[in-house]
Amino acid sequence: MDHITAPIEVHGLTKRHGHVIAVDALSFDVQPGRVTGFLGPNGAGKSTTMRIVVGLDRPDNGGTRINGMPYNRLRWPLREVGALLETKAFHPGRSARGHLGALAAGGGIPRRRVEEVLDLVGLTNAAGRRAGTFSLGMAQRLGIAAAMLGDPGVLLLDEPANGLDPVGIRWLRDLLRSLAAEGRAVLVSSHLIGEMALTADQVVVIDNGRLRADTTLAALTAEHGSLENAFLTLTTNGEGGRDGDRDQATDVGRIPTRRNP
Amino acid sequence: MSTVSTHDRGYGYAHAVRMEWIKLRTLRSTRWTLLAAIASAIGIATAVGASEHTDPVSDVTNSILSGVAPGLLLLGILGVLTMTSEYSSGMILATLAAVPNRLRLLAAKATVFGLAALAVGEAAAFLAFFAGSAALPQGQPAPALDQPAVLRAVVLSGAGLSLVSLLGLGLGAILRHSAVALAVFVVGALLVGQFALVFAPSAARYVPLGIVANSLAVATPKADALSPWAGLGLLCLYAAVALGAGGWLLTRRDS
Ligand SMILES: Nc1ncnc2c1ncn2[C@@H]1O[C@H](COP(=O)(O)OP(=O)(O)O)[C@@H](O)[C@H]1O
Ligand SMILES: [Mg+2]
User: Whole-model pTM above 0.80?
Assistant: First the structure.
């Protein structure tokens, strides 16, 4: 096996959903010690990429590794990787404490971590309540608690700011920055450019499943004036799309799907 | 941050079992459904026992054990939902993050849920038997557990409930959508028997509900039904095929 270049490696990844090429020969690395922003318009392929990294979907070509291993070969997956892929990844009838307790048991994680992560995300007082009664922001916090359960060195968060209020967004930003400062690899997807400009050190921009940029935030903003300008120039949402023709570039070959009508 | 040592085989089946056991215990709806399976068995067995007429050739044990029928439905539905609710709620993402090995996960679910359903099924069958026997009218000879055929009928009824619930779990893994899987389970495992009785009477003996009612829960084997042990074997086969197909699909499909 070739040597490990980064905690998260995406190599030549291709994934089709029927006629839609969701991810197209995508390669990038996510390094430790920084927040890597994963940017792209809706439907760019961010979620698909992250689902493959954590072993939920199978690629058609290429692959992904975490600490040099495909996800399903990790010995203690929850201790190596924390993932937040959807706002609601819990049974609505179970309490937050019960949910985290079950995951801790599955991941071989000591029970006391449950109370620690509940405290970390500020859900201690709601921990006995049915999680189905949680607001969007609380659900998101529960997801972050689950991701932090194994104290992992690698974190993947798909649109974690969804449903958070300004206080929550600020809290999340500080959390992500401090997790990266502790030496963890943090990959955060978002289509909210303003938020990314404040959170990320490194930026990976994709569009139509293809890599458009993989550089530091500083370099990207220096080149384009702002991250927003960079985003609009690099993706087909903006005037300066790949083909210089927005309608063609966005609509041709895209077929409405179940997830993204 | 956690570090992982090199001489460590990692998470295994036992971790998955512990996870599923906590999941089972921490849902109030599950506890109520299991209780309802037992309560309904006692209630119906009591009613059936009290209305039993003196008829020396009838199989009183079989009549009383008809009390487990609603429990069969409840446990089967619970089996289906144990799997499909993972998908409808999004919980499957968290579950597979902890236990990415699909076969290990399904094996753990089947172990935990199958054993819980066995305990509940046996409790329902024995309590139904005692309640129904106690409710028999004066002069009606009561069956006794020291008759091997009676004991077999009670024990196999409980086992039948567990096997049907595992069939439900397997169907849930195959179909993943609650409504679809529930429809297939209710029609396939239970209702088909009613049609079969009318249109193809000889096929009725192979329907899960019919097997429990006419092959397992009998002190006196019925002529038009499978023998108790053949019935038990066929139910095992159904559950094994459903779980096997479910496991095969889980490893091959995107989640
Ligand atoms: N399960 C699926 N079935 C069919 N198409 C899908 C599925 N998941 C994603 N897609 C399609 O793949 C493309 C990428 O989607 P996604 O990865 O969700 O993008 P993003 O997260 O960047 O918004 C979209 O065109 C989407 O419609
Ligand atoms: Mg997405």
Answer: yes
